[in-house]
Structure formats: C-alpha cells, structure tokens
C-alpha cells in the first residue's frame, strides 16, 4: 500500500520513563509516561522504543569483561573485522537479524560494568509489547523496537527498526508508475525504518528519552489480530546480499586466508603491510613449496618450479590489493621480484 497521510504527523518524546531494570513492565512504563504528559494512546498510534529498554527489562546483561566473547556468541556470520587499540572490531550479522557492528552488543547508557545484548527475537518482543499496551489501554497500536547502526557509503549512524509488530513494514511500489507515468521497478520504502529514524529525532542517545509516540499514519497500523510481517522480513539473507563481505575479507576468503588475523585500522608501515601480504599469500599452506621474503619496497618470491612460482605470484598480487598496493613483476634468476606501488584510496 502507498503510505501518504492526509493528516499532520506528530512525534512526541516520552519523558519520565527513567532507568529500566530487569523485570520491569515496559508497557506500563510507557503508559505512565504518557499520562505524565497528559496524553494517552489512540487507535492507529505507533510507539517507537529503544531496544536498550527492552533488553534491560528482559535482563539481557552480561559482565563487560566478557564483551568480545559475547560479540562472537551473538554473531552469525562475519562481514568485516579490523584490529584497533581496544581490540578487534567486527561487523557481523547479529543473532537478532541485521548486519551490525559488534552484533549490537552495547555498553552505552547502561548502569554498572555490564553490556547489553539485543533481544533474540525483536519482532516477538514488539508483539508482546503491543499486546500488553492493548491490554492496558484498549488501543490498537503499532510498535517499533529501534536500534542504531551505521550504513555503507554514508558517514554517521541512524536508527532503524530492529523489531516491529502491527505495522506494514514495506511500501512496495514496484509495478506501479511514478508521477510522470514511468514504471517503478525497484522502489520499496522501508516504512518502519523511516518511523524509527524520525522517532530518534525526539528520543536521542543522551537525553534519557528512550521512547516516542508517532501519530499520523494510522493507515499503516494493522488490526489487533494481525502482527504483520515484522522487521526481520526486511533483512537480506547472505545469498541475496551483494556486500556480504568487506573487500579485504572477500579477497582473503578467495585465497583461503580467512583465518589470518584481521588487519589493523591503521595500516602501519610499508614493511608491516608487506609482511601481512606474505602471510595472506601463504595462508592456505605452503604454496607448492613457495617462499616470500620482504626486501625493502619489494617482495622476493621463490618456488620449486615455474608453475608453482606463477601460482605464488598471482596470490601475492591479489593479497597486495587488500593493502591498497599493486605489484610490478620482474623475473630474476632465482625467482620473481614484485616491486610495490601504492594504489589510490
């Protein structure tokens, strides 16, 4: 359905919720916050609420000392990883569904030396909250459980729908025409993501306002007995993801070097970059008895025969690319010398 509201849109931050603890009734906190603002829920309203509130109420906290282990546990597949002074930073497909940094494991706005994990089934959490809000108020509303993530090709972060209930999540315009009568073949608006991002304008990360009332798009809200497809329906699976791996990880995977330690965020010296190149090139085991030596701004390759030397040379040229380097190949009596040049970043 096309979502064009003839009514003004209101987005109101819900103050007064306060710190949330394990076992708290989140729906009751939302209703009480509305009453403090002399407001109430109406049919067709949408509540957008931070996943952090949902996780706190569900007791999804673990000691911060186990953060890296928790990130790995909450990960389903690695997209990219880099070493930083604080440890390894990973972009992964999280157990909760979306591709996110650190699987959504977070320590911001959390009391004590703990980190929070995401709800294991965010759509189910949204459905439960919707049902409880209906029980408390009688209103048929939509619920969006929000979280924050970065985006490829764009600086900064924005909120998106981690979970959703009682809402059309997608406005699929494919097969229709635009205002000029042209066929639309790819346009499908992620409505719940747009609601989450708009709600974050009044929620914020530092203001202590974890929820918002979104009013004006009642046509998106489904009947009480229809939970909708949920936000997980918007997650691309790995098979359909053109960007399922970072560029470094893709080359390393093709070379059988996926187990090599992730590269650092700061590339380091040329010698360090060439040492990593050699490690990646040889990572699948000795390449037909090949060897790679770093000699100044070049790599010296040796192998048992010409075929092996050719295989090793091609692996080195591919591995160089992951360090934003290219190689000029020169045959020498005892092997091959690959002279290195910088690629533009």
TrEMBL record:
What molecular function terms (GO) are annotated for this protein?
Answer: coenzyme F420-0:L-glutamate ligase activity; GTP binding; metal ion binding
Domain Coenzyme F420:L-glutamate ligase-like: start-end pairs: 17-62, 69-216
Q: Which Pfam families match?
A: F420_ligase (PF01996)
Q: Does the keyword Metal-binding apply?
A: yes
Coiled coil region boundaries:
none
Give the keywords, sorted: GTP-binding, Ligase, Magnesium, Manganese, Metal-binding, Nucleotide-binding, Potassium
Q: NCBIfam families this protein is in?
A: F420_cofE
The name under which this protein is listed is Coenzyme F420-0:L-glutamate ligase/coenzyme F420-1:gamma-L-glutamate ligase
């Amino acid at each position: 359905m096309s979502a064009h509201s003839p009514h003004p849109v209101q987005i109101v931050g819900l103050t007064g919720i306060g710190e949330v603890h394990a076992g708290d009734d989140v729906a009751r906190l939302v209703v009480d916050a509305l009453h403090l603002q002399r407001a109430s829920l109406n049919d067709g309203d949408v509540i957008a609420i931070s996943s952090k509130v949902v996780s706190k109420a569900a007791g999804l906290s673990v000691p911060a000392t186990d953060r890296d282990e928790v990130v790995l546990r909450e990960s389903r597949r690695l997209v990219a990883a880099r070493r930083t002074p604080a440890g390894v930073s990973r972009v992964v497909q999280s157990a909760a569904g979306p591709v996110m940094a650190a699987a959504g494991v977070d320590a911001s706005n959390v009391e004590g030396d703990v980190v929070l994990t995401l709800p294991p089934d965010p759509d189910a959490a949204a459905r439960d909250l919707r049902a409880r809000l209906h029980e408390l108020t009688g209103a048929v509303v939509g619920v969006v459980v929000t979280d924050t993530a970065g985006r490829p090709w764009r600086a900064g972060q924005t909120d998106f729908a981690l979970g959703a209930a009682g809402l059309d999540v997608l406005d699929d315009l494919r097969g229709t025409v635009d205002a000029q009568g042209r066929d639309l073949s790819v346009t499908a608006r992620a409505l719940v993501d747009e609601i989450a991002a708009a709600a974050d304008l009044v929620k914020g990360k530092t203001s202590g306002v974890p929820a918002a009332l979104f009013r004006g798009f009642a046509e998106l809200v489904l009947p009480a007995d229809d939970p909708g497809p949920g936000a997980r329906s918007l997650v691309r699976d790995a098979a359909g993801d053109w960007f399922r791996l970072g560029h470094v990880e893709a080359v390393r995977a093709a070379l059988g070097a996926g187990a090599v330690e992730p590269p650092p965020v700061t590339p380091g010296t040329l010698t360090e970059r060439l040492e990593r190149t050699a490690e990646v090139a040889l990572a699948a085991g000795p390449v037909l008895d090949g060897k790679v030596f770093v000699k100044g701004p070049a790599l010296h390759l040796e192998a048992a025969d010409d075929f092996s030397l050719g295989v090793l040379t091609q692996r080195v040229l591919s591995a160089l690319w992951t360090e934003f380097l290219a190689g000029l190949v020169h045959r020498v009596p005892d092997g091959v010398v690959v002279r290195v040049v910088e690629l533009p970043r």
